[in-house]
Amino acid sequence: MSKAQYKWIGTRPDRPDGADKVTGRARFGADFNLPGQLVGKVLRSPHAHARIRSIDTSKAEALPGVKAVVTAADFPDQPNQIVPTGEMQVNLRDITRNIMAREKALYEGHPVAAVAAVSDAIAKQALALIDVDYEVLPHVIDVAEAMKPDAPLLHEHLITEGVNPPPTKASNIAKRIEFKKGDAAEGFAQAEVVVEHDYTTQAVHQGYIEPHAALASASEDGQVQVWSTTQGHFQVRGFCSRLLNIETSQIRVTATEIGGGFGGKTVVYLEPLAIRLSQKAGKPVKMVMSREEVFRASGPAPGGNVHVKIGAMRDGRIVAAECRVDMQAGAFPGSPVGPACMCSYACYDIDNVHIVGFDVVSNRPKVAAYRAPGAPISAWAVESSLDILAQRLNMDPIDLRLKNAAKKGTKTAYGVTFNTIGMVETLEAIRDSEHYKAPVKPGYARGVAAGFWFNVGADSSAAAHVGEDGSVTVISGNPDIGGSRASLALMAAEELGVDYNKVRPVIADTASIGFNFVTGGSRVTFATGLAVVNSVRDLIRELKVRAAKIWNVDPDGVMWENGMAKPAGSNVGEFEPLSLAQLAAQAGRTGGPINGHAQLNVTGAGPGFGVHVVDLKVDHDTGIVGIGRYTAAQDVGTAIHPSYVEGQLQGGAVQGIGWALNEEYIYNTKGRLENPGFLDYRMPVASDLPMIETILVEVPNPSHPYGVRGVGEVPIVPPTAAIGNAIARATGIRMTDLPMSPPKLSEALDSAALKIAAE
Question: Which of the residues 108, 713, 747, 759 is marked catalytic?
């Protein structure tokens, strides 16, 4: 069915949760309370690296009003076992040490103890009474420094994986990965033009407005209830079950409304602590991070160093490409270096590619996912180098990319062969856009970059229930961050042929619907959407059975069309159609409640490609960059709700602009974060930004009945390089370190001016 034939898909109705959110009625993590609840607080290490000799909690426990104190001794040690967490992998042994330091504190802000008390003031007083004997150790923050043989060692047991023969000495390099296609050395021997550069990026925060919060209530019979701001309440249940040795069936987790996550809320921090405190105190415990705690102790996106080498012929055809990524993992292994490597050249069809990546630990918080984790870092380097190549070849940057664009049948360096994709169409959309065709205004310069993300499917469950009045409730198990309730309801309405306003989407807790993987990887509208579609189809099969009973015909003699059961075949014209409401009214005498269910491990996620173009100007005195115009084009498969798809593109672009121009974690010589708040951690605000124009390129994903592709990850991948490329064309200076903040850019401009003057 073409999109023009859809009744609901592609329309822009109000989102089901909209009214509650704009009126303040929606309940976020910190809004939940229970009678008799206690306040939970965490004592955090002031040191970047320190051995914990001892912890004395006796004074805190004796303080009136303190009901429970926990340390690492209250959490069973875990095996050396890798488990998925959103778009990344983590080790259970590391998770239990991240939620509560054991042998050592490995970063400033690392939890070392927690208390539950009757008031906030008493909880804070109790923390001050806990005596921790630290042996302060040398620390390392920078990824390059951490890789040196004589660097301070975080983990004495950490032997680099992926090296043959295996090393015999521990280091901070957790893993080496490698991808090859063709023969890169042979390709470079053929190349007529070679571009080679080094790039760096810094750690950045996801910038979600709502801090982490959890409320836990453990009852005497062993049952535990948790309310949490999370991107995956099933994942919270799973981690808490493992970390606390509690049966999964004993834990019920409800996802609250979420004030942003972007990957940063796919892990657990407070939930296991709140549960254990509640178990010890016998009362509910509520914990909420301060903004400073969010910055110091939750996972940012990593920084990293990237080396890129690209070889091409004079006609623009790329014949060889290399990339090396050294990526910060934070205190424990598990950076997104794999996706960074895999995404680096995925936009292009290149015969000879060699990519190597290193996962490196340092005395920083364990990193977490952040929209297309890893991809913006490698894209910053690759797309900047492509712009240098375009300038050397005197080629239009879009034409260079079109000449090398991936298409159906392209085999990637990581082994996948693309099916139907929209890289070429997206490049053409920018090339043919009014923005790109318009002349660059005096004083401005233009930059272009592309980006890629795999998108994922994974485990999803859904149910559809017909109400007594003929309305339909669609139940899923994924927290809604970007409008997925509306998208799921639109697909259900389309499939059933009923009015969108007759469909009520509900996000159920972990005890009320089957397992769902996290809201991450741009999977929900695609994968959970497919589960919803299948549950509705199961519902329709049951509706046809009910109509057949009413008419006393075989179910094959019933068809479903436009929200009604109609006679089919030889029965046409013999019976009047039955509406959903009519079938619901007779459900009691045709078999009882009318429900549909679906559960599946979804595959076939269509990868996404995006191309961004930006016009900007640079103040040569201050280094301040002013963005005048910005357009993001992306292959979105089918835009189920175009407004929310556009919002994803705009939001990703804005976050990428912040990453490009201002955002970074800044550490002092003691390994302490100097900007743990929005005042000093400079995120873009409305006055920093133009209107972000969007172009929705719709190349339907053949693996989904409505052509859905995930859209939330790709938009953050191109902005840094697009902006860097425009800055280079505006100033003649190629910035290779993010962020390209006013002080850095001003210094580069001054250095260039002094060099010219000296010559």
Answer: 713
Q: Are 224 and 216 in contact (CB under 8 A)?
A: yes
143-185 confidence digits (pLDDT tens): 999 999 999 999 999 999 999 999 999 999 999 999 999 999 9
> Whole-angstrom Cα distance, residue 271 to residue 267?
10
**What do you get for the CA distance between the two ends of the chain, in Å?**
67
> 158 near 136, Cβ under 8 Å?
no
Q: How far is CA 59 from CA 125, 130, 268, 462, in A?
A: 10, 7, 29, 50
The per-residue pLDDT for 129 is 98
- What integer is the mean pLDDT of 283-312? 98
Q: How far apart are CA 560 and CA 570, in angstroms?
A: 15
pLDDT at 756: 85
Question: What is the predicted pLDDT for the residue at 87?
Answer: 65
Percentage helix, strand, coil, to 5, in the chain? 30, 25, 40
Q: Which two three-digit tokens encode residue 706?
A: 């409505």
What secondary structure does DSSP assign to 667-720, as a single string?
B-TTS-BS--STTTS----GGG---EEEEEE----TTSTT-----SSGGGSSHH
- Give the mean model confidence (pLDDT) for residues 523-551: 97
Using an 8 Å Cβ cutoff, are 364 and 699 in contact? Answer: no
Taken in order 485, 490, 491, 496, the sign of the CA dihedral is positive
**pTM (predicted TM-score):** 0.97
Position 85 confidence tier, pLDDT thresholds 50, 70, 90: low
Q: Quick check: is 247 catalytic?
A: no
Q: How far is CA 553 from CA 361, 496, 559, 578, 759, in A?
A: 68, 22, 12, 14, 94
Average pLDDT over residues 466-473: 96
Residue of 709, 713, 689 lying closest to 700 (CA atoms): 709
Neighbours of 17 (CB within 10 A): 17
Contact in structure between 564 and 579 (CB atoms under 8 Å)? yes
Query: In this structure, are strands 82-85 and 503-507 parallel, antiparallel, or unpaired?
Result: unpaired
Q: Which pLDDT band, with edges at 50, 70 and 90, does 500 fall under?
A: very high
Domains of the chain: 3-25+457-602 (3.30.365.10), 32-137+210-259+265-297 (3.90.1170.50), 304-455+606-755 (3.30.365.10)
Q: Which residues contact 638 (CB under 8 A, 6 or more apart)?
A: 3, 9, 10, 698, 700, 701, 704, 706, 707, 708, 709
